[in-house]
Amino acid sequence: MKIIIRIIGLTALNFFVLTSSEYIDIFQLVYDFSKLPLFKTFSIELTYIFISLLISFFALALVEFFKPFIEIYLMFYLKISFYFFINLVSLSTIYIALRIYGYSRVNLLLYLLTSTILLFITDKKFK
After folding, report:
1. How distant, in Å, are the alpha carbons of 4, 16, 31, 113 from that of 43?
2. Cα dist. 107→25, 37, 66, 114 in Å?
3. Is 101 helix (H, G, I), strand (E, B) or coil?
4. Could you report the per-residue pLDDT of 68-109, keeping only the tens digit for each?
């Protein structure tokens, strides 16, 4: 249940960042997808959903990967900064790898804050 809430929440938050950014530029990604037969009919909204899901899955994979390497102190007292770091790394990695430009910095900061809170709350509620 926790993983489903996290995937839906992170995807929705990132979809909001992509759709509400006035100068978002994903056309290089759309052009790259159009070369593949399976992705020729991808619409802009479907591409946004794909990007959002990719960021969500990458963030959750990073959370699971780094869990064993975190000291006890960090896991209990600075967990919010850990989740902020995970969200920042996953978002920036996917945006750079897929060459997504023109996103709103304010919406990006809102995403980082709300996604960090989402991960923190779901971790507390669904232990």
Report:
1. 25, 16, 11, 29
2. 15, 33, 26, 10
3. strand
4. 776 665 666 678 888 898 999 999 999 999 888 888 899 999
